Every structure is written in structure tokens, then in C-alpha cells.
């Protein structure tokens, strides 16, 4: 198989220059100079650095916020990009060319790497492709900012069996994989502040089998005398009683007792009022839990901050048992798709939505029926081309629906589930109202996955009664961790996952700006992949290869799917000696 190493041996003299697309401010007009890349000198790595070749870069919609905000982006900390530019390209496949003397025990020339861009340095959130200039260049240096951060090195070795594009796409695939791994805290926080809210007149007897020695402080509001005495007798936490509070007093209580940070854990006993639940839920700290313990449905839907479910990992747990602790733990609170269930994917036609659909189809013991929705018929046709055969081969039922022109999505879901609702609903569209509507598709014990991020402070009506009455789940994740990317690599090597199905367009180094614009415009249903080592390759959709590059198109897999053979033909055609 032809690779870049066939033309550019890692032990050859380093390249003198690199072509790069630096970013000098907000707006696409500040990517490059006059809409063109620049040429920079390549230097030898320092003792703690690697010189890497960038083999492939995926374009990601999360870059839009950076393009719009420039130095005001949260990960750039008001940086003046005009004098200290950054560079897009956080989905990257790299090859080590030169190794600094202090790193020669860990790395060697020719070693291939995937990079995990979500990096923490001394607890501060940084990122490759944001704070650290990314992969839209042919060569660059990486050092301690990537290789010696809080979790060690934020790179993962990959074998020669993986192609360049699929290596770069392990990062967005890790975000998808991470959406189904447990990221919520599911027990009372050690040393935290827990608030228990009771209801005046509640005669139920409560207990807790575990977990209530963890908090440093427990605040009690209108809690039954029986539970108050039990806590005072058995818990080592400081007990603070604040009875007789109205909903209007809740905010002041948070400010007084948590320095405005919020309660680490909130328990509400015998909840009846949706508005009371809404008010208390606003006061949960980041990565907090909200535990509903009751047997009677609320009087309506609660207005819940769906942005915080996604970005702050708020866990809504519950039980109809008198044992408060029964709400906690992973056994009760699942995070992956229901085996043999019905899963609905809202906004399935975009690049990330496609990945969710593919994962559901390829997942061993996954859902039996996949309902994929999109308002764009071209994207639905792309889903059909990419996944119809795959679903049939896996014995899965795949339904594709444009909810704006076809029968009601709700009616379809009820028809497919005997009026029960979907086991899982995954939303890849950043819209609070749409998230609230999608929640109505759930079965009582279903799971809502908010994959798309909306700003904190975006509220949607959710039926939280089913959290404690029927074990419903509301989850969301942002980004990925290095362990998620390692899982994707493992699955890819094992043949359980095929990231190449996500490739929708390819281009060479000069086409990077066109790739950014196409990504922003949603021109392609799947991922745009730039190969920085190739020159003269315009941005070309996979469905355009038969006309423009028939020698490459001839190597595509069944259904015009990108594969290592097509990648090899592309390299042979566009490598510039």
C-alpha cells in the first residue's frame, strides 16, 4: 500500500518549509493571507519536542464558534490573534519525523499518531487546534503542551493498518463514543454540600442504604422529622436546618451556603410541583446530581436547562422507593443504547448524526430499529446510500424520515413501538425547542441524549416524573477523552467500526479554506478531509470522484465508501515530488 512514507522517509532530511493556514482573527477572511496559505520555515525539534508530518485533517463544525469569535473564544483567553495566530485542524493524523533527545525512549521516527485535542494543562482547558495551533499545515512541532499535560501525552499510537483519514476521524468518532459512556456523577459528592427538600405534611418514612456519609454538609428544608433524626444519628455531615422556605428563597439559600456555586447534590422528596422542581434544578452545581424521590407524578413539565445537561453533566436521577440511595449508581442509570430497542436520531443527516446512526447499526446487541430524521432530502439519500446495506446485513430496520414533508414523526415512533415511545432519542441539532419536542418521543423509561450543545441557560420542558416513576434518563456530553479515542481505535482495528464511511469530500493543502467554507455551509452530508501533503487536489466530493478522478473512484468501496485503497490512489495521483 502506498503511503506518504514511500515518498518521504522519516529518516530523510527534514523539509525546509511548510505550507500552513494560520488564523489571524475572527472570520474566514482571516484564515491565511488574502485567502491563500503561507510558507514558513521548518526547524529542528528541541529536546522535548517532536517534528510531525500532518497526514490528514478533518473539518469540524465545532470550529465555527472559533471562526466567529476569534481571540474571544473561551479556549483562547482573549488572545490577540493578529500578533499570536492560531491554526484550525484539531482532527489530525500525524507521523513522527524527528524526535528530540529527551523523548527518544517514547517516540521514534515513522511512528503514526492520532491526537486527542481536548487538553488540560495545570487544570486549565486548552486544545490542539485552538489554544495550540492545529493541523492545517504540512509539518509542525509539538512539545510539552501536548506531550506532558495533566493526563500525560495526548497522542495515541496507531498501526499501519489504519488509513490517514480514518485516523484523523478517530477524534470526532471519540466524541460519539463518549456520548454513550458514563460521564455523570451518580453518587453524593465526597466532601460536598447536599440539600434535601421535603414537603410539608409528607408522612412517608425514608431511609438511605449508602452514600450519605460522603457530604460534608447536609441542608434540610421541610424534611420529615423521622429522616431528620435518622441523619442526625447516623451521618457525620454537618446538619443545617432551613425550614419554611418558599421557591423565591431558594436562590438566596444557594448564595449564602455555596458562595453562589450551587449545591453539589439536591434531593427532592415527594415532588408534586413542576415549578418547584424547575426552581431547585437551577441551583445544582456543575457535575451535580438532582435526585427525585416520589410516587406521584408532577403536575406538569419542568423547565430544565438543557445546556447544562450537555456541558455541565447534570445528572437527573430518581426512585419511587423509600430508600433515597436507590436512585444512584450505574446499574439504575444507563448510558448506552437499549439492546434490541428502538432508537430515534434527530438531525441524523449531518456528519456527526451520521456517525451516531452508523454506531447504532454496528453496535453489537444494539437497537433493532433505527429511525433517522433530517429536514434535508439530499442528506436522507446519503444516509440511505451509506447505511441501507449495512443495516440489512446486520439485521436492523432502518427508517429515514423528513418530518417536514412526511407523516408525523411522533406517529411513526408510536407505530414502531406499539404506542410506547422510543427507548432512546439522540438529538444532534443545537435547538432548545427541538430538544424539548424530541423528549416527547421517549418511552417512560427511555433515554434522551443531548449530543448537540446549546448555551447554558437554554431551557426546555421535560417530563421529569418518569425519572423517578419509570427510570427515564437525560444525558449529554461535550467533547471526548483520550480513553474514548483509544476505544475507537481498538474498534476500528477489530473491524467493529468503519470511520471511513464518514468521509464525504477530500482536498489537498490549497483546498483547506474551501473545506472550511464547505463545512460551515453544510455542503456535504459527511466529513471534509484535507490531506496537507497533497498539492493540486481541489475540494472534491466523494460522489464527484467518478467524473473528476475516475482512477480514485474505481477504488471506492461498495456504496461509494472511502477506503484505504481509494486513499492510496489519491496519494499516487497528487503527490508532488
Structural summary, described in words:
- It comes from Herpetosiphon gulosus.
- Keywords: Oxidoreductase.
- This is Alcohol dehydrogenase-like N-terminal domain-containing protein.
- It is a single chain.
- By secondary structure, this protein is an alpha/beta fold.
- It has three domains: 268 residues, Quinone Oxidoreductase, Chain A, domain 1; 135 residues, NAD(P)-binding Rossmann-like Domain (Rossmann fold, 3-Layer(aba) Sandwich), CATH 3.40.50; 114 residues, Rossmann fold, CATH 3.40.50.720.
- It contains 18 helices and 28 strands.
- Helix 4 packs across helix 9, helix 4 crosses helix 14 and helix 9 packs parallel to helix 10.
- The chain starts with 16 loop residues before the first strand and ends with a helix.
- The mean pLDDT is 95.
Amino acid at each position: 500500500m502506498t503511503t506518504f512514507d514511500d515518498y518521504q522517509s522519516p529518516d530523510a532530511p527534514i523539509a525546509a518549509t511548510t505550507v500552513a493556514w494560520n488564523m489571524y482573527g475572527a472570520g474566514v477572511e482571516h484564515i491565511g493571507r488574502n485567502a491563500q496559505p503561507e510558507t514558513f520555515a521548518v526547524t529542528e525539534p528541541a529536546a522535548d519536542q517532536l517534528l510531525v508530518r500532518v497526514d490528514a485533517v478533518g473539518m469540524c463544525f465545532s470550529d465555527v464558534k472559533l471562526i466567529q469569535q476569534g481571540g474571544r473564544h473561551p479556549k483562547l483567553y482573549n488572545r490577540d490573534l493578529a500578533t499570536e495566530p492560531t491554526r484550525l485542524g484539531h482532527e489530525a493524523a500525524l507521523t513522527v519525523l524527528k524526535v528530540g533527545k529527551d523523548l527518544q525512549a517514547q517516540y521514534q521516527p515513522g511512528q503514526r499518531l492520532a491526537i486527542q485535542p481536548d487538553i488540560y494543562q495545570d487544570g486549565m482547558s486548552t486544545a490542539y487546534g485552538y489554544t495550540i495551533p492545529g493541523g492545517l499545515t504540512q509539518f509542525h512541532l509539538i512539545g510539552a503542551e501536548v506531550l506532558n499535560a495533566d493526563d500525560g501525552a495526548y497522542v495515541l499510537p496507531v498501526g499501519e493498518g489504519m488509513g490517514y483519514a480514518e485516523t484523523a476521524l478517530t477524534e470526532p468518532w471519540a466524541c460519539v463514543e463518549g456520548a454513550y459512556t458514563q460521564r455523570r456523577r451518580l453518587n453524593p459528592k465526597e466532601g460536598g454540600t447536599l440539600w434535601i427538600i421535603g414537603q410539608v405534611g409528607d408522612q412517608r418514612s425514608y431511609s438511605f442504604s449508602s452514600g450519605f456519609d460522603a457530604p460534608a454538609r447536609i441542608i434540610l428544608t421541610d424534611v420529615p422529622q423521622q429522616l431528620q433524626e435518622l441523619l442526625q444519628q447516623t451521618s457525620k455531615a454537618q446538619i443545617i436546618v432551613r425550614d419554611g422556605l418558599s421557591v423565591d428563597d431558594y436562590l438566596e439559600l444557594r448564595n449564602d451556603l455555596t458562595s453562589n456555586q450551587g449545591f453539589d447534590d439536591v434531593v427532592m422528596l415527594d415532588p408534586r410541583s413542576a415549578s418547584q422542581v424547575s426552581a431547585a434544578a437551577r441551583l445544582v452545581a456543575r457535575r451535580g446530581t438532582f435526585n427525585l424521590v416520589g410516587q406521584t407524578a408532577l403536575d406538569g413539565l419542568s423547565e430544565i436547562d438543557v445546556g447544562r445537561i450537555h456541558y455541565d453533566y447534570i445528572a437527573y436521577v430518581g426512585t419511587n422507593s423509600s430508600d433515597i440511595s436507590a436512585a444512584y449508581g450505574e446499574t439504575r442509570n444507563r448510558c448506552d443504547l437499549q439492546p434490541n430497542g428502538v432508537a430515534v436520531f434527530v438531525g441524523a443527516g449531518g456528519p456527526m448524526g451520521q456517525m451516531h446512526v452508523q454506531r447504532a447499526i454496528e453496535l453489537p446487541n444494539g437497537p433493532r430499529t433505527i429511525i433517522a430524521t433530517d429536514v434535508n432530502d439530499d442528506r436522507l439519500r446519503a444516509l440511505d446510500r451509506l447505511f441501507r446495506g449495512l443495516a440489512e446485513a446486520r439485521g436492523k430496520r432502518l427508517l429515514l424520515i423528513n418530518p417536514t414533508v412526511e407523516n408525523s414523526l411522533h406517529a411513526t415512533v408510536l407505530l414502531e413501538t406499539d404506542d410506547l415511545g422510543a427507548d432512546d432519542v439522540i438529538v444532534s441539532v443545537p435547538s432548545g425547542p427541538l430538544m424539548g419536542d424530541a423528549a416527547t418521543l421517549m418511552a417512560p423509561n427511555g433515554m434522551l441524549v443531548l449530543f448537540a450543545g446549546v448555551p447554558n441557560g437554554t431551557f426546555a420542558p421535560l417530563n421529569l416524573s418518569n425519572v423517578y416513576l419509570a427510570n427515564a434518563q437525560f444525558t449529554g456530553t461535550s467533547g471526548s477523552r483520550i480513553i474514548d479515542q483509544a476505544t475507537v481505535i481498538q474498534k476500528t482495528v477489530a473491524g467493529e467500526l468503519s470511520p471511513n464511511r464518514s468521509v464525504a469530500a477530500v482536498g489537498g493543502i490549497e483546498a483547506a479554506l474551501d473545506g472550511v467554507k464547505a463545512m460551515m455551509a453544510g455542503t456535504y452530508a459527511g466529513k471534509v478531509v484535507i490531506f496537507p501533503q497533497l498539492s493540486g487536489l481541489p475540494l472534491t466530493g466523494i460522489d464527484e470522484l467518478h467524473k473528476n478522478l475516475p482512477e480514485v473512484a474505481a477504488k471506492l468501496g461498495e456504496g461509494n465508501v472511502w477506503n484505504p485503497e481509494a486513499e492510496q490512489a489519491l496519494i499516487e495521483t497528487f503527490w508532488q515530488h
